[in-house]
Design goal:
The chain is mainly alpha-helical. It contains 22 helices and no strands.
């Protein structure tokens, strides 16, 4: 959310020796950051077991990483502006490779948490600096393709992670969840080394606003931790959640007050809250909410109801990932020829239809094949919606504002995704409990239909000869059927809620003003410290 000086020379394209190699480097960074977070989530049970950690303690494994990413985002922006993206990203990539090498050798949970936090600090530099590099390295006529590649990167890494994690666990080891980052990070460093020319630090930059950087980063990180742990700790019934939210909120409020009163603010608040940037960032958060929500709901159904392993879940999610290779370039071509609002609207409409189609037909008997039509619609929708919103925002930016926008996208992306996941996880859990209670009202001991069902289950699970445990097994099967039906109903309600939120986001898109035909000439969001806006 914060930024340093953006001077006139910074508006020029970042000097590159092999521009496409440099672009590959920053896109690799985005891919690594998202993939690593998702792999840790899917492989959490295996990592937790290797560390001999319980459910509650192990829940902090993924939180430690994403908290660090949120914490470092303001620092990443400031350092990228002052020292240039090459130097900052090169150090971050090599650091991430080292941390990823060491993480599997952790002997206990505290060591793993420290390494996860350090890895999050390193990978937290990747996403904020990606968009800025794309906009500075490519001519404006190629920006649509750069934005589409950025969206493709996020979507691929988001949806292939289950397949990778399942394959690692089945054929290699849980350690490869972390070790697979090493060649990717080293490859990123090599691309940076040979694809991007050195740029000297700006000797005239003003001193860093330590208070602003600290309060923004720590405050957002604490709020993120509260959202990530809220469902497990029962939200506001937990003192820990209250403490995290209160501390994070006070720090963010202190940051805003400081920026409004200091003589040398990091940001111009009047411009920061002026349209269209807040609305566009809200749309990005909405989109991440809908995407991560469905990326959570489908695996939740396949694992909780159908008992699928991660590798089998990945075979379903790949039908969102693979079509992106076609639809993202198609979105870029469409963006070059029509209004970005239309492209984003088409995307949101397809996502809403996909969610409603699942909600309409989902039963406990569904397998991965039944999700195929909705997954294809979801793939088209995500490609068009994310590319359209990002391009709409880019058209309202000047190149020198790109680093700032990258940080705000990172904040909206992480917060929107976390809010979405927390919302649907809580909604699915609560609605599942309600459904279980309502179904239970019709499953009464002694009821004729219940007795007939128990007898059928006992006969189906009977062993040779007399089987005293038959009635207990039949009761267990009936309980599993009720839980399966209740879980399915909770997920159906969550899909309907996601479709409704997607419709709200569609209304926001329709309400946006047309974007300029090229980079906008509006007042820069982040002004030179001490300079008049």
């Amino acid at each position: 959310m914060t930024d340093a000086v953006v001077t006139a020379p910074a508006a020029a394209a970042a000097p590159t020796r092999i521009p496409w190699l440099g672009l590959t480097a920053v896109l690799l960074g985005t891919f690594i950051s998202t993939l690593n977070g998702r792999l840790s989530s899917f492989g959490l049970a295996d990592v937790r077991g290797a560390m001999h950690a319980g459910f509650d303690e192990g829940a902090w494994i993924t939180t430690a990483q994403t908290m660090a990413q949120m914490l470092i985002a303001p620092v990443a922006i400031w350092m990228g502006t002052i020292y240039g993206p090459r130097r900052v990203l090169l150090g971050a990539a090599l650091s991430f490779a080292v941390v990823s090498t060491l993480t599997p050798f952790s002997t206990n949970l505290p060591t793993l948490l420290v390494l996860q936090f350090l890895g999050g600090l390193a990978s937290g530099f990747f996403v904020p600096l990606t968009l800025s590099f794309i906009l500075r390295s490519l001519p404006p006529k190629f920006w649509a393709y750069g934005v589409a590649l950025y969206a493709l990167n996020l979507e691929l890494s988001l949806n292939i992670s289950a397949s990778l994690e399942g394959w690692y666990v089945d054929h290699l080891s849980w350690r490869w969840i972390f070790w697979q980052n090493v060649p990717l990070a080293v490859g990123m460093a090599l691309c940076l080394q040979f694809g991007v020319a050195r740029t000297p630090p700006d000797p005239n930059h003003p001193p860093a606003d330590i208070f602003g950087l600290a309060t923004a980063g720590v405050g957002l990180a604490l709020i993120y931790a509260a959202l990530d742990q809220g469902n497990r700790l029962d939200w506001l019934n937990s003192g820990a959640v209250w403490g995290l939210l209160a501390a994070g909120g006070l720090l963010v409020a202190g940051f805003l007050v400081h920026e409004a009163r200091t003589a040398h603010p990091l940001i111009n608040l009047k411009v920061a809250f002026a349209p269209p940037l807040p609305q566009l960032l809200l749309l990005i958060a909405f989109l991440r909410l809908t995407i991560l929500s469905t990326a959570y709901l489908i695996p939740q159904y396949l694992q909780a109801v159908r008992g699928f392993r991660a590798l089998e879940v990945g075979q379903t999610l790949v039908w969102i990932a693979a079509p992106q290779l076609i639809f993202c370039p198609l979105a870029a071509l469409t963006l070059r020829r029509t209004d970005a609002r239309l492209v984003a609207s088409i995307g949101f409409i397809f996502v809403a239809i996909a969610c409603l189609s699942v909600a309409h037909g989902l039963t406990p008997d569904w397998t991965s094949d039944q999700f195929l039509p909705s997954q294809l619609l979801q793939a088209v929708g995500q490609s068009f919606a994310l590319s359209g919103i990002l391009f709409l925002a880019v058209l309202n930016l000047r190149p020198q504002d790109a680093i700032t926008f990258g940080a705000m996208v990172q904040t909206a992306r992480l917060m929107g995704g976390e809010i979405g996941t927390a919302f649907v996880a809580t909604l699915a859990r609560v609605r599942g409990q309600v459904a279980s209670n309502l179904i239970g009202l019709h499953v009464q001991s002694g009821d004729l239909a219940v007795q007939q069902r128990l007898a059928a289950y006992a006969a189906a699970t009977a062993r040779n000869g007399a089987d005293p445990a038959g009635p207990a097994r039949a009761a267990g099967v009936l309980g599993a059927v009720v839980r399966s039906a209740a879980t399915t109903q909770g997920l159906i309600d969550a899909f309907v809620a996601v479709a409704a939120l997607t419709s709200v986001a569609l209304l926001f898109v329709v309400a946006q003003r047309p974007a300029p035909l090229g980079p906008a000439s509006h007042t820069p969001l982040f002004t030179r410290w001490g300079a008049a806006p």
